[in-house]
């Protein structure tokens, strides 16, 4: 068949003959496919290079590599769709089913006359924003094009959903999914939510309609937008008047048999328990009811016995279930709004008092906290749910909770807004790398300053520490250094636990940066003493100890500390910390030339990297595994491919580390020119990062490469620079390795 489908709405997806194909790991390669698919004319190679690559990345080579990967996706036997020559590149889309193209084609036609099935089919193909997650905001031309395509797709989908809801108005059940989709797409559109409220009321679902009404009003007001009255008119004009439950249950639940004599018994404890069960539906259980209702076990048991006898509730191994869902809706609607919010708050407090065990519990916590009307409680619920998701590597859900929580903090003021916003930013950064990391770091520093002014020392420490991690990850070492020190200063008047965390994190950061190592050791010693006295365990302590031991060339001691840190991180659910501890253990394996052990550790890192956020962790694990393949099997091709993805992940410190290790292997295999190129690239990254140890090792390797190539001028130049760097604070293991390299006799000429 060779049928090909390309879905650009939501995550990029390529489907051939009904099978979803694996996509290249490179984000730029995927972006290139989308860009070609939306342009019918050939595009020059120069334009594509300027669009997606930077000069140091060898744009033309990267483009060739990306095109080779795309051919495997789009070309099929007898059908070559990707066409490239010396000047230009194009993609023949004449027989490719592209979701966004179909959407625009349909919306440009007469929607009022179009077939309903065709409209619905196209509407259901909208899986999210155009190229979700592939904005590439560092590349301004591509980013601008992507945003324009996204806006156009949103407008077209909105038009399509509006038409569907209007044309299906006489069939509310049929129109409802499209109304929900319309509201998700345009949450601040009062017309969309008013239509949803009308449909829910027409389907006799007043509880959901009221929730949508309240949510719509709150969101629109929080966004600072005017309300035009459509929501309230939809509620008043459409709302039916159901027969009160206590007067006539049977008529409120059509086509069911309800025992006679129900009404007199639905009083007192039974009525109270049924109300709580309605709030908890469909997941009510005996334990939660006993905690939130305030009834003792005996009274609760009697009330449930009455409810079961009258077949209002079924009680079994799965918990408590209403026999008729409409009964739960009416009971819920009969509770006054103020009492209802109080009850939701009580349930949220009960759920928050115990550790979360599953996603259902996390979603329940968030639901009841939001329904309580208490913004503070709702934001805290988002934080707890987000942290639970991070522990279980549910990063998209954690990101969603954090973003929802940050939207809630916009309606707050004072200290609580600052503290909650900082905790939510912490969840957000752990869930996914920031699209605009410089703005993100600036935002948390501003919040940290405000926390300091309010006397919230623990949260000030969190903000500075978070900013330090963000800047360290992107090579802004000087700023990372200053903000790490500021995190420690902020908590000098704080409680013991905060002081331990601040000193340990600052020592860890200074050790990573190879800055002020005496201060790092002093802070670490103070943190250890205080932690021992107060019985406080925190993974940054052994991580910092491991880094300082590694710097001193005490590998066995460092490995012990890193294993301890990995265990603590794993127990605390800190997956990024766990990865970093394993990464440090891998460096020790590589320096010991223990590639068999390193390969096994890489497999663990790869498995963990798949579950982490979409950062540089997974590309690094893959590149490290490919390096081990080179060492063990003398096959360097996989490493070269993996490096391309790692370069695109913008992780200079990880890239420099692996390039230097590969250059050592190249020299051992007499591939001097390849070693020179890799050490040269590593030196560029190390200079940007201001990493003296990596600079020294790169210069020593380059001096050895020049010696073997008979280039005495460059050998002397790199040797002199290396000797000067040896006078600086340098890791002892790097110093040892460099002295060995520099000790080679200058006169010897190897090929």
TrEMBL record:
UniProt xrefs under Gene3D superfamilies: Tetratricopeptide repeat domain, Winged helix-like DNA-binding domain superfamily/Winged helix DNA-binding domain
UniProt keywords, alphabetically: Coiled coil, DNA-binding
OmpR/PhoB-type domain location: 18-91
Record has Chloroplast as a keyword: no
Keyword DNA-binding: yes
Record domain Bacterial transcriptional activator: where: 98-239
SUPFAM superfamilies in alphabetical order: C-terminal effector domain of the bipartite response regulators, TPR-like
Coiled coil: 588-615
Similarity section: Belongs to the AfsR/DnrI/RedD regulatory family.
Protein name per Swiss-Prot or TrEMBL: Transcriptional regulator
Species this chain originates from: Billgrantia ethanolica
